[in-house]
Every structure is written in structure tokens, then in C-alpha cells.
Amino acid sequence: MDGSYLGNLIIWFVVFLLSLTVHECAHAWTAERVGDPTARYLGRVTLNPIPHIDPIGTILFPLIAYTTGAWLFGWAKPVPYNPLNLRDRKWGEILIAAAGPLSNVLLGAIFLILGKILLQTSLASSLGDMTKSIDAVVQRGIFLNIILAVFNLIPVPPLDGSKILMNLLPDSIAEPYSQIPDWSGFIVLILLMQVGFIEALITPIQHFVWYLYLYNG
Questions:
Q1: Which of 12, 34, 160, 208 has the most CB atoms around its CB within 10 Å?
Q2: How many domains does the chain have?
Q3: What is the pLDDT of residue 22?
Q4: Which helix H or strand E contains 195, and what residues bound it?
């Protein structure tokens, strides 16, 4: 493993860990805002990545995906909340679920704006040899957060999109939908990856954001 590959791996993993941490912290923070302090008591309203790490989903699977060139697949510890504590259960659950993907949209936008300020203004000349490294961090920050935001909005359990959809469905449909086990959702997600659906969903968004990043008009 040469130094260049190891350096890229470290950058990728640090940005991935930051993005997952922001995602989970957003869930926890929102849960407290809408009435349930469970996540706060468990130390999940934090940007410290350690409380959010799942050894398999946060470390093992993503590193295997990176080193083998497979589709990125990973997760952090789910943020627990007590729906009985929510001031409005339906909209509380929707807001908690949506907070994670929305935080990744915001973080991706921050990376994009930061990259344009640092690399497409007069500041670029003062960065010298750091320019390439900053560009690598910015690009990974933008595209990892696009993937996390769009992927998590897919309405398949256990993703955030399924919790949003469940609370928008009529009760007669929402009840059986909520009983779908997570393991079957994982199978559906793997099938969607294999047939290229998720790539087709994410790629146009990546191309549009890439255009925004490169555009210097």
C-alpha cells in the first residue's frame, strides 16, 4: 500500500466519519427539540464520533467497500428516542428522521462553498502545495454527503425515508408497513444496488453539484 493510497484512504474515512457523526447528532438534537431527551441522556447530542460508532457499520463495512471498490455501504448506531415523549408524535418522528439527511445536505453545501472560497479565489495562490489536499477533502465531503442524504431518503426500512413515509401513510397502510423487518429492507437495498437503481438516482445529483463546484462564472 503506497503513501498516496493510504493518504486518500485516511482522508476518505475521516470525512465519512464526520458526515455520519453530523447525521446522527442531527437526529439526536432534533429529538430533543421535539420533546424527547433520551438521546441527550445517552450522550448522542455530540459531534464527538465515538458515541455514534458502530464497529461493523461505521468501520468494517465502509473500509471493505473502499478497498474493494464496492458500493459504499455503512451506518452508525441508531439514535434512540421514545415516541411517547414527542409533543406531536407524527410530525416529531418525521422531523427526527428528516434531520439526518438534511444535515448531510447542509454539510455538503458547506464543503462546496468552502472549496469555492479556498480554491477559486485569490486565496488559492497562498495555499501552495495544500491546494491538492484541500481539493481532495472538499470533493469527498461533497459527494459522500450527497450519497448519505439521497440514500437515507429511500423509503426502505431501516432508512430514514421509511420513517418519513410511514408517518405520511394512512393508518391502515402505515401499520403493516411499520412491521416490515429491517433485514428484509437490507435485502431490498442490496437488490436496488445490484440493478443500478441507487446509482441512477444519485449520479444526476452528483453531476449537478459537480457542475456547481467547477462553475466559476
A1: 160
A2: 1
A3: 98
A4: none
